[in-house]
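[step 3/7] inverse_fold.run input=structure_tokens len=179
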């Protein structure tokens, strides 16, 4: 019998935690139920950095936990990517420092895929969802109605199509075919 769910976990995470336990694994250096306090985050992020192929930092101040995670990832031999921002924004300074120190510039999903040597050439015909989209922007609810699929599986496949640059995500949770 698995240990009880941590009492400090938000109620909204209960279903996710149960699903992970049923089909995956929960990894932690801390006892289940340990509170989510600031000095625990670097230990958690070290595990994340070690398991990941790479780390993408989108925004980070100069004193940011994201920079700790990026450093841990680099030390573990993982790729580090950073999204540049305005030179006037304090929340971009950490990313700029990472880029100066050798992180790969990330302006689009293709930069991540290329940096991780991930092949993205999958024919659009391999995606039944691609055909269901049509050629006009479509929202997730319409796609669910057209395909009879749930939002979770659609979102996963749409992300795959987006990474393959076959689909673009638009404001309002809408999607547009690119091919």
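[step 3/7] decode complete -> sequence:
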């Amino acid at each position: 019998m698995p240990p009880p769910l941590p009492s400090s976990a938000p109620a909204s995470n209960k279903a996710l935690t149960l699903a992970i336990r049923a089909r995956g694994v929960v990894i932690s250096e801390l006892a289940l139920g340990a509170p989510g306090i600031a000095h625990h985050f670097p230990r958690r992020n070290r595990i994340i950095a070690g398991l990941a192929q790479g780390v993408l930092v989108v925004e980070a101040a100069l004193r940011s936990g994201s920079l700790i995670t990026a450093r841990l990832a680099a030390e573990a031999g993982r790729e580090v990517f950073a999204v540049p921002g305005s030179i006037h924004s304090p929340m971009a300074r950490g990313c700029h420092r990472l880029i100066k120190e050798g992180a790969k510039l990330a302006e689009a999903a293709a930069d991540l895929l290329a940096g991780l040597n991930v092949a993205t050439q999958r024919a659009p015909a391999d995606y039944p969802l691609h055909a269901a989209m049509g050629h006009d922007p479509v929202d997730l609810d319409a796609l669910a109605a057209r395909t009879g699929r749930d939002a979770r599986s659609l979102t996963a496949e749409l992300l795959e199509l987006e990474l393959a640059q076959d689909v673009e995500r638009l404001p309002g949770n809408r999607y547009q075919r690119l091919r």
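[step 4/7] annotate
The chain has a mean pLDDT of 85.
Residues 151-163 form the longest helix (13 residues).
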